[in-house]
Design brief:
It is found in: Cell membrane; Membrane. Belongs to the SecY/SEC61-alpha family. The strands form two sheets. The protein has a three-stranded antiparallel sheet. The protein has a two-stranded antiparallel ribbon with strand order 2-3. It folds into two domains: 188 residues, SecY subunit domain (Preprotein translocase SecY subunit, Orthogonal Bundle), CATH 1.10.3370; 239 residues, SecY subunit domain (Preprotein translocase SecY subunit), CATH 1.10.3370. The chain is mostly helical. It is globular, with a radius of gyration of 24 Å. It is built from 17 helices and five strands.
């Protein structure tokens, strides 16, 4: 405990770190305050406050409940995330985007500008669909045509405002701004979910012992998730030794950290989007509700869980294949005079890296599928749906990843000022905290 208070005191002593943390907290408070502002012309008492499910529930979770509240920030950062994914995929398939990725800072600025423009276009389309499907007609208090036009502009401005807040946190705060905003939206639902779970346990079955067992199980799941997020396969790389004058260059042995879960949360997001298709079909064609498609409306059913797990495994291999390029890694290594011991440079190195990635991606995809269906398993054990979402899925992976990255940045400030780090046994390593000889950036 003394070590903890000493570390917190050291954090507060560093003026730059203190200012960054305070700035981050202020921005997050502003975001939470604005997220409760309802769209102009909407009667809040006429809104349906029931919990969203499927893809809509995922969007509502990312937006911190703003989606179901019909807030000015209802769409949150989802359009920005969608635009970022599209630009990233274009960087793999389109040569002009590949060229911009290799142009350094100027290329990144161009890609960021394209992402912003694409965010505006996606937000405009999603805003129209959101207004027509999520805002009840009886809740609109002004002229309907005027409301549609006004709300489209307001929702687009709200998404750009959230994106601006995230960029401000990244520049002047601590951690990744967009990721922190998503994390705060997820955590905002935890107190209500925990209160509901406590009430159900003491009113119904289980009592205090059942609640304690749930907390212990949640702690074990979080530890398991951290192992998956942090798991890497270290491929040793040796650099050729060169002697220039009286100085020696190279000759250093490093390693490439190939992540067990290189795809991050993207396979779950993609799979969840596909799992929403059967529910959409049954809503448009009521005659299909009597078919086997109705099983996909219950995320705790065996059919849903097995299909969901299979899609996650498939998308994990797909997304890893398009984001991790063994050929480029082998070429970069060869240009810098590096080689893997007992493996020839060039094609043999590329094949070796590809084989290692394939071997570690399979167990990684299995573990990711297990984490994704854990909320359904938790519901089957009698845990309330709201609280069960914290036992796995996208929310848990985002929480673990963002917390680790933020702690890594705080520890970097401490170590630069010659203070002890956060961990007594070793340094905190986030998704980008492992030194690498070469490799690709992780995706949140």
């Amino acid at each position: 405990m003394k070590k903890l208070f000493t570390t917190l005191s050291n954090i507060w002593k560093i003026e730059e770190l203190r200012e960054r943390i305070v700035f981050t907290l202020i921005i997050l408070l502003v975001y939470r305050f604005v997220s409760h502002v309802v769209l102009p012309g909407v009667d809040p008492t006429a809104l349906d406050t029931n919990e969203q499910s499927g893809l809509l529930g995922l969007i509502d979770m990312f937006a911190g409940g703003s989606f179901s509240r019909v807030s000015v920030l209802a769409l949150g950062v989802m359009p920005y995330i969608s635009a970022s994914i599209v630009v990233q995929l274009l960087g793999i398939a389109v040569p002009s985007f590949q060229k911009m990725q290799k142009e350094g800072e100027s290329g990144r600025n161009k890609l960021n500008q394209i992402t912003r423009y694409l965010t505006v276009a996606i937000t405009a389309v999603q805003a129209i669909g959101y207004i027509k499907t999520q805002v009840p007609v009886e809740a609109i208090m002004i002229d309907r045509t005027l409301f549609y036009v006004l709300s489209t502009f307001v929702l687009a401005a709200g998404t750009l405002f959230v994106m601006w807040l995230g960029e401000k946190i990244t520049d002047k705060g601590i951690g990744n701004g967009v990721s922190l905003i998503i994390m705060v939206g997820i955590i905002a639902r935890l107190p209500i979910a925990l209160q509901q779970e406590i009430s159900s346990r003491f009113v119904g079955e289980g009592g205090l012992i059942g609640l304690v067992l749930e907390i212990v199980a949640l702690f074990a799941v979080v530890m398991f998730t951290i192992l998956i997020v942090q798991g890497v396969r270290k491929v040793p790389v040796q650099y050729a030794k060169r002697i220039v004058g009286n100085r020696q260059f190279g000759g250093v042995r490093q390693y490439i950290p190939l992540k067990v879960n290189a795809a991050g949360v993207m396979p779950i997001i993609f799979a969840q989007a596909l799992m929403f298709i059967p529910m959409t079909l049954t809503s448009f064609f009521p005659s299909l509700q009597n078919t086997w498609l109705i099983q996909f409306s219950d995320y705790t059913s065996l059919t849903y869980c097995l299909t969901f797990a299979f899609l996650i495994i498939a998308f994990t291999f797909f997304y890893t294949a398009i984001t991790v390029n063994p050929t480029q890694m082998a070429d970069d290594m060869k240009k810098n005079g590096g080689f893997i011991p007992s493996v020839k440079p060039g094609l043999a190195t590329s094949s070796f890296i590809d084989d290692v990635i394939s071997k570690i991606t399979f167990p990684g995809s299995i573990f990711l599928a297990i984490i994704a269906i854990l909320p359904a398993i938790a519901v089957k054990f009698g845990i309330k749906s709201e609280f069960a979402h914290f036992y796995g899925g996208t929310s848990l992976l985002i929480l673990v990843g963002v917390v680790l990255d933020t702690l890594q940045q705080i520890e970097s400030y401490l170590l630069m000022r010659h203070y002890d780090g956060l961990m007594k046994t070793g340094r905190v390593t986030g998704r980008t905290g492992i030194p690498a000889a070469t490799g690709s950036n992780a995706v949140i």
